[in-house]
Structure of DUF302 domain-containing protein:
Amino acid sequence: MKKVLLILVLPLLMLKLSFGGEVNFEKGYYYVVIKKGNFDKVNAVLQQEIQNHKWGIIHTMNVDKTIKSNTPHKTYLLCRADYLTEGIKFNKDVISVLIPCRISIYQNKNDVKILVEDVEAASTHFGIEDKKFKAFLRQVTDEMKSILQKTSDHFEKKSLTPQM
């Protein structure tokens, strides 16, 4: 029975993986890669998703201009007033370092990569033990991941694989 199930499920999982566009994790940050993406179009959708999630772009760092590169690369500093207000109640020192959140987008050959720091994991450097504060930071991280996923969803094909 297990072999039959594996034979049925494995091709579906491989089909799902072949489309990409899912949020991935690596070394303290989440990211998506949009295959053969046009930077300007992806960037416009990213900015719209940031607004849709009620975050504001408080500063744009033009990394490409700073390093005098022809390859598009921007980092946005994001803030959400209600999250900042809530976070200050927990720990004003730590939240002041963790927010604004950063989201970075750059052209990587033919693909566009968008990354965001794992705010919850970054907080471990500060010795945070308060479970409510950790839950709050998890909410912030989940919000950032949602921005990545919704941006990617505009460009990547969806598989028909049921979620398990």
